[in-house]
Known about the structure:
Layout: H1 4-10, H2 17-26, H3 32-44, H4 50-60, H5 67-84, H6 88-97, H7 113-127
Helix pairs in contact: 1-2, 3-4, 4-5, 5-6, 5-7
Amino acid sequence: MGFETVDRYLLGEPVSKAAALEAALAERSDAPAAAAFYRALEAVGVRAADEAFIALRLILAGRPASDEAVRRVRALAAIARACANGDRAGLKATLRRDAAVLADLDAGEAADPAVLGAAARAAYARELAPAEAGPR
């Protein structure tokens, strides 16, 4: 599955949500667990929460789309986006809101945004790496 556009959108690169949605719907997996997400994305379009993209990404990687997993990936993406865009307020809010799912990330107040952003992107990639027997 080509989710590069969705990842670029979630990680704060200059990609519109509409482009991410179009990319997600253009190349669909046959995995039964993904069907409902595709239908939902079609139905609500760009009004879909980013969590829908994240849950679909997790499912297609063969990973559980549990609330904790979705929250963690959402938080990692938010940190990467805030760091990429120099959004210190957004970064601080994410670190405060999602501290429980980010405990392993060295994200203290003095953390260098470039280093923190790179760490968040790396963790995001690890969380979405294909599982051994994931759906395709």
